[in-house]
Amino acid sequence: MKPDIYLPVIVAKNTLERGAVISPSDIELKKRNISSSRAGVITNPDEVVGLTVKRRIRDLQPISPAQLDQPIMVDRGQRVVMIAEQDGIEARTMGEAMKKGRKGDMIKVKNESSQRVVSAVVDNMGVVRMLYAPGQ
After folding, report:
1. Are 51 and 30 in contact (CB under 8 A)?
2. Which of 17, 18, 85, 123 gives a 20 to 30 Å CA spacing to 72?
3. Is 101 helix (H, G, I), strand (E, B) or coil?
4. Closest to 11 in 3D by CA, of 28, 35, 32
5. pLDDT grade for 54, boundaries at 50, 70 and 90
6. What is the pTM of this model?
7. The CATH number of 72-130 is which of 3.30.310.260, 3.30.1490.110, 3.40.1640.10, 2.30.30.760?
8. Under a CB-based contact definition with an 8 Å cutoff, are residues 127 and 85 in contact?
9. With respect to CATH, is domain 7-69 assigned 2.130.10.10?
10. Phi/psi at 47 (5° precision)
11. CA-to-CA distance for 4 and 8, rounded, in angstroms?
């Protein structure tokens, strides 16, 4: 028999639907018995704010890492800022995302001026970093 362990954990204030981006007003800390929790628990609100809900979370249900994902930061067809950096010099241009992506995802982006398709890593909302500088 496991002992009961109670900790303040992050729970949903209201039902959160799939695809919702969590804001501070969506969550609260509530003391819960975590001794039987297999999915893990989150105790720091900063770990969930800004993340996307993978599947519905009922009101007052503890939120686990498995229920969350990084938000989509670039949509397919979206006009994005392309950044290339080399030896401390940064160049920026505009491009079109060929697929959607979350922070850290590698996606293909078409450079608007050269029409070249290059690989880039999603860095922020509407911003990608090219893996290499053009012309290398």
Report:
1. no
2. 85
3. strand
4. 28
5. very high
6. 0.68
7. 2.30.30.760
8. no
9. no
10. -75, -15
11. 13
